[in-house]
């Protein structure tokens, strides 16, 4: 069962006017960050905020009348669920979505809002499988697999056609790998229209499944990752041979790279990427030598990140940049002491965010106290200047580790 | 000095290939939120992340060789500064930017990064003026006014031409007003190509300057607003007559509307808007009856918001939605009590974010203690269920006001 450029082109004709032709824009600030010439395809602007719209619509449109009547079922904690629910409703097809009970609230609600029946089952996708099988046996509904399906793969591949339409001379595409549907479709399409283009895959370090399969390695798979959209334990049967043939190499990215990439999209490109959506940029940060000086196309493949996690990443990045700094001071426990310190910090241009005053620690003198202060600073040099001024004031400042909440 | 559609069309030809033709996309989730059919023009994706790129380039390109040699000066705390600095460097023109010393660090750094000379002076823009005059007298450089200049106004107006190119039958454009350059240019352009289109202006409630001028009112002007990009105390001489003639009405938006709009852009559209950039959407939230059922074009005119402020808005919105809830419990001060409560919260599906245990309050029994807990919940109903369960457990829960930091 070979998928070809012609299949992707057919999918593109089906999608015309249905899925958004998302923007493909030069990203000069990301170019500055990475030393490459970066272009971003904003798949996070699709209606369900991920590329999954494409494959889901192509698959659902290809169903017979009889199949549509029986309805569809999908097993997904995230973007595939929303895409299937959305397009099923548009096409008048009943949809059931089975999700692990651990699915973030925001994703359950978004899927429900598109009119699908939600079934919560099991701790992981693997544990949902039995329930899915039971529902299929009962209702004879059609399974919409998130990646191991020729229609899905062809649908996702339409992204690369649009990218190369606009920037025909890209040197390399960097594409996240979960089950492999996104990279397989886009590798077929991109290499079809531009045979010399290089395809680089990205997996989360905790989920190197495709790499294990390709290299015969048996590296451990599992753990909590920001890139839950590509945290997949089983790659596709259809996708592996495509990746083996067309993908040059696979970069593994760790959590710090993913966080930095999410933050860079937000602060430099003013756009919201989920962890998996930022994986391509994370790979550029993790292995810059692969991309330097080249024309790189990134697929920002999804934007569905929990606002609380995003807020936490932003604050952590400010701490990494020394724009939010926490330190402990040793002070005399007497009236006026806090006022003196607060005034000093004010004169230094440090904006106080948090103060925690303690008298019960054993490592301060009996008549002393300890004061934990978190301030906003301009940058690393400013933070250092503040620490020096506090030391000169006799407060024995000690930096505390970042305490970004949650 | 009348600016015409022909001026805007000329500006558009100058900008071709220089400023980005930003995406103009349907925003179905914002349509759902507002009851209108909403389209967004993503000016936050310009290189300096605001529409100011357009006017600045048009103005700088129109300078004579002699003027270019002498250099330019601009007075701005924000987006205008970055746009002038960026295009001046591209055109090889020396640029000096005078900013108030209160300018957020992120904006100073961004402008410096574009190679301009930064002069920090005074608490407000008004206080910068003398310094600007002195520098002009000394260097004979050309002032690039942020709005009261025909070239700037014509440059900004190119946005509406692009919007109507893509969606020709828009009923109304909603456009933020600071000094009035953005709305004047776009009103001229939009009404020029589509005479029946309605133009609605937006001002921050704390800065109703244009409205004061048009209505003869004398409402107070000043205060701290999230929309610092339109917090202007003097509207333009050139802009007022255009607004008087072409703008149907002006909506004032308060801080809560601005925060909700910034959050909606982020969580629903996956894009980052600064306060002024979200003002159009804020106006739709403030006065939905003006827009319901109509085809509305929003100019998301800027995306330069401090990450810390954005993170704080996101958390506050979660609190408003009861997805983060804080309450105080009265408990017996004995071993095991905290464990029992934490276990109960776990069974209820409440994710504990913060715990603060106090024994020193006077309003709890001498042998009692008070426990402040912040949890993440699914939604309002879930929060209520948790409160009821705690009451049944005898913990006398009392909701605490939102405590979003900063």
Q: How would you describe this structure to a colleague?
A:
Two copies of one chain form a homodimer. Chain A is of the alpha/beta class. In chain A, 44% of the residues lie in helices and 18% in strands. The first copy, chain A, contains 16 helices and 14 strands. Chain A has a six-stranded mixed β-sheet, sandwiched between helices. In chain A, strands 5-4-3-6 form a four-stranded parallel β-sheet, sandwiched between helices. In chain A, α3 (52-61) packs parallel to α5 (79-91) and α8 (150-166) crosses α9. Chain A is elongated and about 80 Å long. The A-B interface holds A 20, 23, 25-26, 28-29, 42, 44-45, 47, 49, 105, 109, 263, 266-267, 269-272, 303-304, 307-308, 310-312, 314-315, 317-318, 323-324, 353-354, 376, 378-379, 405-406 and B 20, 23, 25-26, 28-29, 42, 44-45, 47, 49, 105, 109, 263, 266-267, 269-272, 303-304, 307-308, 310-312, 314-315, 317-318, 323-324, 353-354, 376, 378-379, 405-406.
Descriptive tags:
homodimer; 14 strands; about 400 residues; alpha/beta; four-stranded parallel β-sheet
Order of helices and strands of chain A: HEHEHHEHEHEHEHEHEHHEHHEHEHEEHE
Q: How many separate helices of chain A? A: 16
CA distance, first residue to last residue of chain A: 47 Å
Main sheet summary of chain A: 6 strands, mixed
**Fraction in helix of chain A:** 40-55%
Structural class of chain A: alpha/beta
Proportion in β-strands of chain A: 15-25%
Indicate the multimeric state: homodimer
Radius of gyration of chain A, in Å, reads 25 Å
